[in-house]
Write a structure and sequence with these properties.
Radius of gyration: 26 Å
Shape: globular
Helix content: 40-55%
Distance between the termini: 85 Å
Number of helices: 19
CATH topology of the largest domain: D-Maltodextrin-Binding Protein, domain 2
Order of helices and strands: HEHEHEHHHEEEHHEEHHHEHEEHHHHHHH
Number of strands: 11
CATH class of the largest domain: Alpha Beta
Structural class: alpha/beta
Oligomer: single chain
């Protein structure tokens, strides 16, 4: 009798032992989480390889979770694809989109606030660690809707060789509008036929004209949109003065006439077609790798104020119509990829500003900053940086401003008329949100 009982127990134990791996496999299958991740790949440079590596590293460290990067075109194309997917019931779980898309995504009820995932003191400390300047385009009405990731400010780059030729100090960029004009006059070169071969200064006016315009309005002490995204201030006399300055550089032959392409501006700098260019810190690594000459990097020149730049770049967002498990996995990935060590390496690899002081305090970024001081210009400019222009119905309102800027730069309208017309149309578009 005892032997039969023993055999039954042995058989039951064996069955349990055999079933255990199967049970584990089933449990693992149930907890496996795929996280489609939309990323705007053509922001500059071979960044997709870096993103792939991060996704693979996270997957190895988090068994059962697979981050699936989907390279979805530029920022605008990525936004359209993400919202189209959301409306059809197949959104990405997370996406990197412009920080300025926040109001649009809220209005579409497409995203969840990160506050739902902030549960521990460690979570709260992580959220507080981001620079306040970057959170201005990430928070509204007491909630956090985006997490800063590939963020930037606008800076000036100058060719030190051309500065030396023009009798300028190669270690010092222009500090204010007057100096910028004076430097540009000395740096502009013409051939025997009077054709410009090197422009003194170049500010791109395609792609993100409104953003580059803020490099003139911010130091002129004017903010173009309120914090709630419901009203704009485009026809302020100080905004008109800023646009008149930009147009005046071109009229005086110191800056290319008409619309200057965003994408070709770094190339023009490499080819010495422009001595000073105004562009994102996100181009820093690109310029370092491709400029065949020594260059300087400095903050935006001041005017009424010492200086100041809009922040820019992309945030992480988490989408609705995805499972709680997917959303939690996305949150964990976002926490993981924004740790100080990874944020520091991302800054080194791409040129984007690190998003927290803790990242700049890491040994890797400290060493990099000592070896390559231009990497710290974006950080040092943050205390006087402002939120990037962003409103509800952001795509249409921004287009109104972009069209106005280009109308002035191409001579179709005066700066005053262009911005007054833009103010009237933007106010009409925003009336439903007021």
């Amino acid at each position: 009798m005892q032997r039969k009982t023993f055999l039954k127990t042995l058989a039951a134990t064996a069955a349990t032992a055999l079933a255990w791996p199967l049970a584990m496999t089933a449990a693992q299958a149930q907890t496996a989480v795929d996280v489609p991740f939309f990323y705007p790949v053509n922001v500059g440079g071979p960044i997709n390889k870096l993103i792939d590596a991060y996704a693979e590293d996270f997957g190895r460290a988090h068994a059962g979770t697979q981050i699936k990067p989907i390279y979805s075109g530029n920022y605008q194309e990525t936004l359209v694809k993400a919202l189209t997917g959301f409306k059809s019931g197949t959104p990405p779980v997370t996406a990197v989109l412009l920080s300025t898309d926040m109001f649009t995504l809220i209005d579409e009820e497409a995203i969840v606030p990160f506050d739902e995932f902030i549960k521990t003191d460690e979570d709260r400390a992580w959220l507080r660690s981001f620079y306040p300047a970057f959170l201005k385009n990430s928070q509204t009405d007491g909630k956090t809707w985006g997490i800063p990731f590939q963020r930037s400010t606008v800076v000036i780059y100058w060719n030190k060789e051309l500065f030396k030729e023009a009798g300028l100090d190669p270690e010092r960029g222009p500090a204010n509008w007057q100096e910028l004009r004076e430097y540009a006059q000395k740096l502009t070169k013409k051939d025997a036929n009077g054709n410009v071969t090197t422009w003194g200064v170049q500010i791109p006016s395609s792609g993100f004209p409104y953003w580059l315009f803020q490099t003139l309005t911010t130091p002129n002490d004017v903010i173009l949109a309120n914090d709630k995204g419901t009203a704009v201030n485009l026809d302020d006399p100080k905004a008109i003065e800023a646009l008149e300055y930009w147009v005046g550089l071109a009229k005086d032959g110191l800056h290319p006439a008409g619309v200057v392409e965003w994408g070709t501006t770094p190339k023009d700098f490499f080819e010495k077609k422009a001595a000073i260019v105004v562009t994102t810190t996100g181009n820093l690594t690109n310029i370092r790798n491709n400029a065949g000459f020594e260059f300087g990097v400095g903050p935006i020149p001041g005017h009424r104020l010492k200086g100041g730049s809009p922040t820019g770049g992309g945030n992480f967002y988490i989408f609705k119509k995805t499972s709680p498990e997917q959303q939690q996995a996305a949150f964990e990935f976002i926490r993981w990829i924004t740790t100080p060590e990874r944020a520091a390496q991302w800054s080194i690899d791409t040129g984007y500003a690190a998003t927290s002081q803790a990242a700049y305090d890491t040994p890797a970024l400290k060493k990099y900053g000592e070896e390559f001081p231009p990497a710290l210009v974006a950080r040092d400019q943050l205390p006087i940086s402002v939120a990037e222009f962003s409103t509800f119905d952001n795509q249409r309102v921004t287009k109104v401003l972009d069209d106005a800027l280009q109308a002035a730069l191409t001579g179709k309208k005066t700066p005053a008329q262009a911005l007054q017309d833009a103010q009237q149309e933007a106010t009409r578009l925003l009336r439903p949100y007021q």
